[in-house]
Design goal:
Low-confidence stretches: none
Number of strands: 17
Helix content: 40-55%
Shape: globular
Largest sheet: 9 strands, mixed
Radius of gyration: 23 Å
Distance between the termini: 24 Å
């Protein structure tokens, strides 16, 4: 029986729908799923994660098990209380704000940490159910930072990798977590610990040295009789999928329809989840300043802003949405004319076909994150441009800025700098736009999501040889 690649993540890559007493599973196609599907390997790929649904009784759970097995999905079932305290609590009310430099947003509760430990243990038990000697375990992201250590205690000779998809904060922030030592020890259960950029990697190494008093020599950490490798692998996208999308007749029609609806002026496009880390309000303030300070751009440029709903039942996110609604209303109320709307605001998720069409017609792609692990939207926008026109304005705080040097790089906290970036983008000659796009596309095409997955797994194999 061939050895398996066991991917462990907070969520299974699927959508579960229920009609009457019947359940249907539809695999979803996120960036991670795409990368792992494109990974060329003889290993069987299995996935451990929460299915995103709570079953009220065992009968319903049994009915759907066969469908999970068909896709080689191995569900970890969580109660609503565990989801609340582990996911909404410790993961997103403590680790998330700490990692994105919003430490004042951290909310400590003892039950959060207890739930985080309990869920990591449940994930460990489910992984052990399917693990066999020779299998590779690849743990994904901040919700499961204790898992590598839990697995190592039971299967000391296993090959375990861990990838951190969000920023790793500086030591001065990370040290504030009461559970800092336990989290680091959990991560050190892996043979390979990886991040999107070298700066996140350096923050992690600094925390290891200053909190656990362990030395790191040439990106290797020595723990007892083990060597743990630390490295950076910038995650990519399915480049060809986005680059070739506009050739589809249905997507081309959507693009033409969007262009007609938005009018003849230039279009700035931003795509985000509802989150305080994305700099959405600052983006609106800078666009407002552009229209106030540079009246020549009125009726000649619009901002199309897509914000996907996220945790809007949480007070802080609900308040953020209210502030965004007010800001959009204020700008449109002050500057709109009969034939022109300054801001088009969509509070919903868009399908791939819609996004691909919008990316293609947008004259400017805008990313203003205060802090971002990578930000794949920036790469999707650049990849989607087949013509010679298109400018990317990109926050220097996003991991993607390390690779996309030919974007207009901005400090997302500086409203004046953002306004000037709008002017630069609007006035950029087509020849320079084409030159910059060509260079950025070359980077994205090479460092695609398939290469990201392949590079990580190859280094994980090499860590075994090193041992």
């Amino acid at each position: 029986m061939p050895m398996k690649l066991i991917i462990v993540s907070n969520r299974l890559p699927l959508t579960v729908t229920q009609k009457n007493d019947k359940y249907k599973i539809t695999p979803s196609a996120g960036g991670l799923t795409t990368g792992l599907h494109s990974l060329e390997t003889k290993m069987e790929k299995h996935w451990v994660g929460w299915p995103g649904i709570h079953f009220e009784n065992d009968i319903a759970q049994i009915r759907i098990e066969s469908q999970f097995r068909k896709h080689q999905f191995h569900p970890v079932y969580l109660t609503p209380d565990l989801v609340e305290n582990y996911y909404e609590g410790y993961s997103n009310s403590i680790i998330w704000p700490s990692s994105h430099y919003f430490f004042s947003y951290v909310q400590h509760k003892d039950e959060y940490w207890e739930a985080y430990k309990e869920v990591n243990q449940l994930f460990c038990e489910k992984t052990l159910e399917i693990f066999e000697p020779g299998d590779i375990i690849w743990v994904q992201d901040y919700q499961l930072m204790l898992l590598p250590g839990l697995l190592r205690k039971v299967i000391p000779n296993a090959c375990i990798g861990y990838f951190h998809h969000i920023p790793f904060p500086s030591y001065e922030l990370f040290r504030c977590l009461p559970e800092r030592s336990e989290i680091l020890k959990g991560l050190l259960g892996a043979d390979l610990i990886a991040f999107h950029t070298h700066s996140y990697m350096r923050h992690f190494i600094s925390a290891i040295y200053r909190i656990l008093k362990l030395d790191c020599v040439f990106d290797e950490i020595y723990v007892e009789n083990r060597v743990i490798n630390v490295d950076a692998f910038p995650m990519g996208i399915n480049y060809q999928q986005f680059h070739d999308a506009i050739q589809e007749v249905s997507i081309k029609r959507k693009a033409d329809k969007f262009r007609e609806n938005f009018g003849a002026g230039k279009l700035i496009l931003s795509v985000d989840r509802l989150d305080y880390t994305k700099g959405i309000l600052t983006r609106l303030q800078s666009f407002d300043k552009l229209l106030a300070d540079c009246p020549q751009y009125r009726e000649k440029v619009s901002l199309a802003m897509i914000v996907s709903p996220s945790r809007d039942s949480v007070e802080r996110y609900d308040h953020l949405k209210e502030e965004i609604d007010k800001a959009v209303g204020s700008i449109n109320g002050q500057y709109s004319t009969l034939g022109w709307r300054p801001v088009y605001y969509f509070y919903r998720s868009f399908k791939f076909e819609e996004l691909a069409a919008l990316y293609n017609i947008a004259d400017i792609g805008l990313v203003t994150s205060y802090r971002d692990g990578m930000n794949l939207v920036a790469k999707e926008y650049v990849a989607s441009k087949q013509g010679k026109q298109g400018v990317l304005i990109l926050s220097e705080m996003a991991g993607a800025a390390i690779e996309l040097h030919d974007a207009i790089i901005v400090n997302p906290n500086n409203i004046n700098e953002l306004k000037e970036a709008f002017v630069e983008a609007l006035e950029m000659p087509e020849s320079l736009q084409a030159k910059n796009l060509e260079k950025m596309q070359a980077v994205i095409a090479k460092q695609n999501v398939g290469k990201w997955a392949k590079d990580f797994v190859q280094e994980l194999f090499l860590s075994l040889i090193h041992i």
